[in-house]
Design goal:
ProC C-terminal domain-like fold, eight-stranded mixed β-sheet, binds NADPH dihydro-nicotinamide-adenine-dinucleotide phosphate, binds (2S)-3,4-dihydro-2H-pyrrole-2-carboxylic acid, proline biosynthesis, P5CR_dimer, amino-acid biosynthesis, oxidoreductase
Amino acid sequence: MSTRIVLVGCGHMGFAMLKGWLGGGVVPVDQVAVVEPTPALRERAAGLGVRAVADAEALDASDAPELLVLAVKPQVIRDVAAHYRHWGNGATTVLSVAAGTSIATFEDVLGGQTPVIRSMPNIPAMIGKGMIATYANAHVSPETAKFVEALLSCSGAVAALPEEAMMDAVTAVSGSGPGYVFFFIEALEEAAKRAGLPDDVAALLAKQTVWGAASLAVESQDVPAELRRQVMSPNGTTVAGLNVLMDETKGLGPLLAGTVDAARRRSEELGKA
Ligand SMILES: NC(=O)C1=CN([C@@H]2O[C@H](COP(=O)(O)OP(=O)(O)OC[C@H]3O[C@@H](n4cnc5c(N)ncnc54)[C@H](OP(=O)(O)O)[C@@H]3O)[C@@H](O)[C@H]2O)C=CC1
Ligand SMILES: O=C(O)[C@@H]1CCC=N1
């Protein structure tokens, strides 16, 4: 059986996506190969049933996959991609998840006719609840585009972007976003402890509140602002709390705007490095 997908880099994001694909049943395990230099991570991937090797040289160069997924750090992606130059300008489509790295970078390293899909997933892909944005160059065939959409859908919601330039903003919002939300949970837990609650109760309240509110926001016909109003009893406790959180200069609104802007600028910088 020939290899349909080669996944290069099976760290946090690569493994999260691999789990989603195999869980979704879109591709059988014997059609996926993983390249990962770290032995423990290679063993973790092999534990899912896929073939896992330490470097590109361990793969058969004549066995060109339909998809070459690059899930390594932006700082090394150019050097890593160069090991797969023999699959450029051909039938193999490159799917990148790297922050900042442009399609032009892959065309430069692998050849200008190489089909490339740039994507930005996020870590909840691990449990099929990710957000994945994509942008493809003109060389990607409709059949491969359909296969990749089915594959990525195993990991969560998929949105095709109208312009590649939007990828930096997407990275700052949904790519990094789980990090912001995890910190919100940590901060709510800390505040709960400071308010006198035991550690285990504080941890449970923080996680369950964010999970419940996020689930309701996704499932409800009402927009989040309407759901918020439903919690705000006149002159009640929520109003008192939100008066702090919604402060126009020091509240969460300007703080998040600054947060997303800093992450977007860093994504742009990574693209220039
Ligand atoms: N983490 C996240 O939430 C998200 C990450 N991304 C993107 O995903 C990419 C990977 O990030 P992340 O998973 O967090 O990083 P990790 O460091 O967890 O994973 C990258 C893995 O690639 C391995 N690697 C290094 N060189 C090679 C090589 N030549 N061949 C194969 N594997 C190699 C690394 O090994 P070693 O450590 O030994 O170098 C590491 O295990 C980045 O480009 C990032 O921008 C995108 C969206 C979200
Ligand atoms: O922090 C990063 O650079 C990567 C990209 C988005 C999430 N993690």
